[in-house]
Amino acid sequence: MRILIVEDEPTINAQLVASLKDESYVVDCATDGRQALFLGLNEPYDAIILDLGLPHMDGISVLKSWRDAAITTPVIILTARDNWNEKVIGIDAGADDYLAKPFRMEELLARLRAIIRRAAGHATPVLSCGTIELHTKTGKVSVDGLTISLTSHEFKVLSYLMHHQQELVSRTVLTEHIYAQDFDRDSNTIEVFIGRLRKKLPPGSIETVRGGGYRLVCPS
Ligand code: CA
Question: Rounded CA gap, 112 and 19, in Å?
Protein backbone atom coordinates (compact mmCIF):
# COMPACT_ATOMS: atom_id res chain seq x y z
CA MET A 1 0.00 0.00 0.00
CA ARG A 2 1.45 3.32 -1.07
CA ILE A 3 0.81 6.47 0.95
CA LEU A 4 1.43 10.16 0.28
CA ILE A 5 2.38 12.18 3.34
CA VAL A 6 1.87 15.93 3.02
CA GLU A 7 3.41 17.74 5.96
CA ASP A 8 5.71 20.76 6.00
CA GLU A 9 6.95 20.34 9.55
CA PRO A 10 10.18 18.32 9.24
CA THR A 11 9.90 16.58 12.63
CA ILE A 12 6.32 15.40 12.15
CA ASN A 13 7.06 14.48 8.55
CA ALA A 14 10.02 12.33 9.61
CA GLN A 15 8.00 10.65 12.38
CA LEU A 16 5.20 9.84 9.95
CA VAL A 17 7.60 8.40 7.38
CA ALA A 18 9.36 6.22 9.97
CA SER A 19 6.12 4.93 11.52
CA LEU A 20 4.49 4.16 8.19
CA LYS A 21 7.57 2.37 6.86
CA ASP A 22 7.61 0.29 10.05
CA GLU A 23 4.08 -0.81 9.17
CA SER A 24 5.19 -1.92 5.67
CA TYR A 25 3.69 1.03 3.82
CA VAL A 26 5.50 2.54 0.87
CA VAL A 27 5.78 6.28 1.36
CA ASP A 28 6.14 9.41 -0.79
CA CYS A 29 6.39 12.87 0.78
CA ALA A 30 5.37 16.38 -0.16
CA THR A 31 6.30 19.41 1.93
CA ASP A 32 4.21 22.08 0.21
CA GLY A 33 0.77 22.37 -1.35
CA ARG A 34 1.82 22.59 -4.99
CA GLN A 35 4.01 19.51 -4.80
CA ALA A 36 1.19 17.67 -2.99
CA LEU A 37 -1.31 18.65 -5.68
CA PHE A 38 0.99 17.40 -8.43
CA LEU A 39 1.79 14.06 -6.77
CA GLY A 40 -1.84 13.39 -5.83
CA LEU A 41 -2.94 14.05 -9.41
CA ASN A 42 -0.24 11.91 -11.00
CA GLU A 43 0.59 9.01 -8.71
CA PRO A 44 -1.74 6.19 -7.64
CA TYR A 45 -1.84 6.31 -3.84
CA ASP A 46 -3.88 4.05 -1.59
CA ALA A 47 -4.33 6.86 0.94
CA ILE A 48 -3.12 10.40 1.61
CA ILE A 49 -2.31 12.09 4.93
CA LEU A 50 -2.76 15.83 4.41
CA ASP A 51 -1.74 18.63 6.74
CA LEU A 52 -3.89 21.70 6.13
CA GLY A 53 -1.45 24.55 6.87
CA LEU A 54 1.05 24.33 3.99
CA PRO A 55 3.34 26.69 2.04
CA HIS A 56 2.34 27.78 -1.51
CA MET A 57 -1.17 26.30 -1.45
CA ASP A 58 -3.30 25.39 1.59
CA GLY A 59 -4.44 21.83 2.22
CA ILE A 60 -8.15 22.53 1.68
CA SER A 61 -7.48 23.96 -1.80
CA VAL A 62 -5.28 20.98 -2.64
CA LEU A 63 -8.01 18.58 -1.51
CA LYS A 64 -10.71 20.43 -3.48
CA SER A 65 -8.54 20.34 -6.61
CA TRP A 66 -8.03 16.58 -6.26
CA ARG A 67 -11.75 15.97 -5.83
CA ASP A 68 -12.57 18.29 -8.77
CA ALA A 69 -10.20 16.16 -10.84
CA ALA A 70 -12.13 13.04 -9.72
CA ILE A 71 -9.26 11.74 -7.57
CA THR A 72 -11.10 9.53 -5.06
CA THR A 73 -8.08 8.42 -2.98
CA PRO A 74 -9.04 8.35 0.72
CA VAL A 75 -7.64 11.37 2.59
CA ILE A 76 -7.05 11.96 6.31
CA ILE A 77 -6.56 15.63 7.13
CA LEU A 78 -4.43 16.85 10.03
CA THR A 79 -6.11 19.84 11.64
CA ALA A 80 -5.08 22.34 14.28
CA ARG A 81 -6.28 21.48 17.76
CA ASP A 82 -9.55 23.09 18.88
CA ASN A 83 -10.35 24.25 15.38
CA TRP A 84 -13.67 22.46 14.78
CA ASN A 85 -14.39 24.73 11.84
CA GLU A 86 -11.39 23.34 9.94
CA LYS A 87 -12.71 19.80 10.39
CA VAL A 88 -16.11 20.72 8.97
CA ILE A 89 -14.58 22.54 6.00
CA GLY A 90 -12.18 19.65 5.42
CA ILE A 91 -14.87 17.00 5.42
CA ASP A 92 -17.07 19.11 3.17
CA ALA A 93 -14.10 19.48 0.81
CA GLY A 94 -13.86 15.69 0.51
CA ALA A 95 -11.75 14.43 3.42
CA ASP A 96 -12.60 10.93 4.61
CA ASP A 97 -11.36 11.41 8.15
CA TYR A 98 -9.49 13.92 10.30
CA LEU A 99 -7.09 13.95 13.21
CA ALA A 100 -6.32 16.97 15.39
CA LYS A 101 -2.70 17.83 16.15
CA PRO A 102 -0.98 16.73 18.27
CA PHE A 103 -2.09 13.19 17.58
CA ARG A 104 -0.95 9.77 18.72
CA MET A 105 0.71 7.75 16.01
CA GLU A 106 -1.29 4.63 17.03
CA GLU A 107 -4.52 6.50 16.34
CA LEU A 108 -3.33 7.76 12.99
CA LEU A 109 -2.27 4.23 11.97
CA ALA A 110 -5.64 2.79 13.03
CA ARG A 111 -7.52 5.43 11.04
CA LEU A 112 -5.26 4.86 8.06
CA ARG A 113 -5.91 1.09 8.09
CA ALA A 114 -9.63 1.78 8.32
CA ILE A 115 -9.86 4.21 5.38
CA ILE A 116 -7.76 1.92 3.18
CA ARG A 117 -9.98 -1.05 4.04
CA ARG A 118 -13.17 0.87 3.48
CA ALA A 119 -11.97 2.27 0.16
CA ALA A 120 -11.40 -1.33 -0.97
CA GLY A 121 -14.86 -2.34 0.31
CA HIS A 122 -13.82 -4.22 3.46
CA ALA A 123 -15.52 -3.32 6.72
CA THR A 124 -13.58 -5.59 9.07
CA PRO A 125 -9.89 -5.51 10.08
CA VAL A 126 -9.27 -9.13 9.09
CA LEU A 127 -9.27 -9.67 5.34
CA SER A 128 -9.93 -13.22 4.27
CA CYS A 129 -9.75 -15.11 1.03
CA GLY A 130 -10.63 -18.79 1.38
CA THR A 131 -8.29 -20.06 4.10
CA ILE A 132 -5.92 -17.09 3.78
CA GLU A 133 -6.32 -14.40 6.44
CA LEU A 134 -4.52 -11.08 6.69
CA HIS A 135 -4.80 -9.18 9.95
CA THR A 136 -4.44 -5.53 8.94
CA LYS A 137 -3.66 -4.46 12.49
CA THR A 138 -0.80 -6.86 13.23
CA GLY A 139 0.31 -7.55 9.67
CA LYS A 140 0.04 -11.29 10.37
CA VAL A 141 -0.90 -13.63 7.57
CA SER A 142 -2.20 -17.13 8.13
CA VAL A 143 -3.26 -20.05 5.97
CA ASP A 144 -5.62 -22.59 7.54
CA GLY A 145 -5.07 -20.88 10.89
CA LEU A 146 -1.28 -21.25 10.75
CA THR A 147 0.84 -18.09 10.57
CA ILE A 148 3.09 -17.95 7.54
CA SER A 149 6.19 -15.82 7.36
CA LEU A 150 6.57 -13.36 4.51
CA THR A 151 9.33 -10.98 3.51
CA SER A 152 8.49 -7.29 3.45
CA HIS A 153 7.98 -7.27 -0.34
CA GLU A 154 5.94 -10.47 -0.33
CA PHE A 155 3.72 -8.89 2.32
CA LYS A 156 3.29 -5.70 0.28
CA VAL A 157 2.23 -7.68 -2.79
CA LEU A 158 -0.14 -9.93 -0.85
CA SER A 159 -1.64 -7.03 1.09
CA TYR A 160 -2.49 -5.22 -2.16
CA LEU A 161 -3.98 -8.37 -3.65
CA MET A 162 -6.00 -9.11 -0.47
CA HIS A 163 -7.45 -5.58 -0.55
CA HIS A 164 -8.27 -6.08 -4.24
CA GLN A 165 -9.19 -9.76 -4.19
CA GLN A 166 -10.98 -11.26 -7.23
CA GLU A 167 -9.86 -8.23 -9.25
CA LEU A 168 -7.46 -8.31 -12.17
CA VAL A 169 -4.35 -6.45 -10.99
CA SER A 170 -1.77 -5.66 -13.65
CA ARG A 171 1.94 -5.98 -12.98
CA THR A 172 2.30 -2.23 -13.53
CA VAL A 173 -0.33 -1.44 -10.89
CA LEU A 174 1.32 -3.80 -8.40
CA THR A 175 4.70 -2.17 -9.09
CA GLU A 176 3.25 1.30 -8.52
CA HIS A 177 1.74 0.28 -5.20
CA ILE A 178 4.71 -1.52 -3.68
CA TYR A 179 7.49 0.92 -4.59
CA ALA A 180 7.84 4.62 -3.74
CA GLN A 181 8.24 7.22 -6.49
CA ASP A 182 11.99 7.57 -6.09
CA PHE A 183 12.59 3.84 -6.11
CA ASP A 184 14.24 2.14 -9.06
CA ARG A 185 11.28 0.04 -10.12
CA ASP A 186 11.60 -3.22 -11.93
CA SER A 187 8.32 -4.92 -12.74
CA ASN A 188 10.17 -8.23 -13.32
CA THR A 189 10.73 -8.51 -9.57
CA ILE A 190 6.95 -8.74 -9.15
CA GLU A 191 7.05 -12.12 -10.86
CA VAL A 192 9.65 -13.26 -8.35
CA PHE A 193 7.51 -12.17 -5.38
CA ILE A 194 4.42 -13.81 -6.90
CA GLY A 195 6.39 -17.03 -7.41
CA ARG A 196 7.47 -17.07 -3.77
CA LEU A 197 3.97 -16.23 -2.53
CA ARG A 198 2.51 -19.10 -4.56
CA LYS A 199 4.72 -21.54 -2.66
CA LYS A 200 3.35 -20.24 0.65
CA LEU A 201 -0.35 -19.98 -0.28
CA PRO A 202 -2.87 -22.71 -1.11
CA PRO A 203 -2.45 -23.99 -4.71
CA GLY A 204 -4.27 -21.90 -7.30
CA SER A 205 -4.65 -18.83 -5.06
CA ILE A 206 -2.91 -16.47 -7.47
CA GLU A 207 -4.01 -16.78 -11.05
CA THR A 208 -1.91 -15.37 -13.88
CA VAL A 209 -4.03 -13.49 -16.38
CA ARG A 210 -2.88 -13.17 -19.99
CA GLY A 211 -1.22 -9.87 -20.69
CA GLY A 212 0.71 -9.58 -17.45
CA GLY A 213 -1.78 -9.47 -14.63
CA TYR A 214 -2.73 -11.43 -11.56
CA ARG A 215 -5.89 -12.24 -9.71
CA LEU A 216 -6.24 -13.47 -6.14
CA VAL A 217 -8.91 -16.14 -6.42
CA CYS A 218 -11.09 -16.63 -3.36
CA PRO A 219 -13.24 -19.77 -3.22
CA SER A 220 -16.73 -18.78 -2.04
CA1 CA B 1 1.73 22.76 8.60
Answer: 12
Return the SS3 of 209: strand
pLDDT for 66-111, tens place per residue?
999 999 999 999 998 778 899 999 999 999 999 999 999 999 999 9
In the reported structure, the alpha carbon of residue 8 is separated from the centroid of ligand 1 by a whole-number distance in angstroms of 5
User: In DSSP terms, which residues pair with 166 in a beta bridge?
Assistant: none
Return the bridge partners of 213, or none: 170, 209
Predicted TM-score (pTM) of this structure: 0.90
Collapsed DSSP state (helix, strand, coil) of residue 30:
strand
Instruction: Residue 35: name the closest of 2, 79, 3, 5 by CA.
Output: 5
Spacing, Cα 91 to ligand 1 middle (Å)? 18
Ligand 1 centroid distance, CA of 60 (Å): 12
Rounded to the nearest angstrom, the distance between the alpha carbon of 194 and the centre of ligand 1 is 40
Instruction: Report DSSP letters for 99-135, one per residue.
Output: EESS--HHHHHHHHHHHHHHHTT--SSEEEETTEEEE
C-alpha 87 to ligand 1 mean position (Å): 15
